[in-house]
Design a protein that fits this description.
There is one protein chain. The longest helix is centred in the middle third of the chain and has 25 residues, at 118-142. By secondary structure, the chain is α/β, with parallel strands linked by helices. Helices cover 37% and strands 14% of the residues. β1 (4-6), α1 (10-18) and β2 form a beta-alpha-beta unit. It has helices at residues 10-18, 73-88, 110-114, 118-142, 168-171, 175-178, 181-184, 190-193, 200-205, 210-216, 239-243, 267-289, and strands spanning 4-6, 26-29, 35-38, 44-48, 93-97, 145-152, 160-163, 221-222, 251-258. It is globular, with a radius of gyration of 18 Å. α1 runs parallel beside α4 (118-142) and α2 (73-88) packs across α12. The chain has twelve helices and nine strands. The protein has one domain (4-289): Zn-dependent exopeptidases (Aminopeptidase, 3-Layer(aba) Sandwich), CATH 3.40.630.40.
Length: 300
Amino acid sequence: MPRLVCFIVLAAAAVLRAAEPPVPGKTYFGRNDYVEYIAGSLPFVLSAAHGGRDRPSELPDRAKGTFAFDTNTQELARAIDEEFVARTGLHPHVIICRVHRRKIDCNREIVEGAAGHPLTEQTWKDFQGFIQTAQQAVVARHGQGFYIDLHGHSHADARLELGYAHSRDELGLPDADLSKPEFIRKGTLQFFALKNPSAYPALLHGPQSFGALLETAGFPSTPSLGKPVPGEPYFNGGYNVRTHTAPGTGFAGLQIESHSKGVRDTEANRRKFAAALVDQLAAYLEAQMGLKLPLKPKAK
């Protein structure tokens, strides 16, 4: 499907979010093209908050916060989008911040993320607003959806860290504690996990958990069947995944913190990971949420 490009000014972006459903296949931009939104029609929303490379002079450097650049996560998000199009003919919804994290952090609340600067605050609102627009479009079309916030880490343990908003200590609790509804409500899978609380431990680290599925595809992950309790340090999910899987969104989801080598360091590895993610996400969504993606066989 050819990608159409639609440049929109701030006022138009506000109108889109408020009244108009996004057109699948079009790309929308926020103010000064700082945030990019590829509209889709699949029940999946993907965001990349920390892969931006632009350093516009009109946005001041933030004085406080974390400034680490998640190298090639923007490119990884685009590879995942391209793989979905190749395998389904359809786009997921993809939201990318194109501005460097020194200027803005779209995975923090607005006070820390925009540091009080009006233009930075508008960029932050564009990013969050496009995610909300995408989710509303998914719920209108499919009734429910899944969200992944994509990041990168440089920890010594080279595996995918999946964040469900539970700490590593919490993930080490007995299954009886993990199965309690009050515990499930802390997490980012609560939208469907509360329907069967006793199965929640398996969703986190059982053979059909997302981590286990990724491991079968050759990408070590945690929590998973192979490593149910992450090591230290471990990124367990930030502002975006907690906000956009909250009650009332119609979404479940998780955060992926990806290591570099073999996942996002080269174009070939990004494409390899994208292919695995599409396959395993399709299996996961059908099994856990009854969402069947129209996957075509892999090209040989």
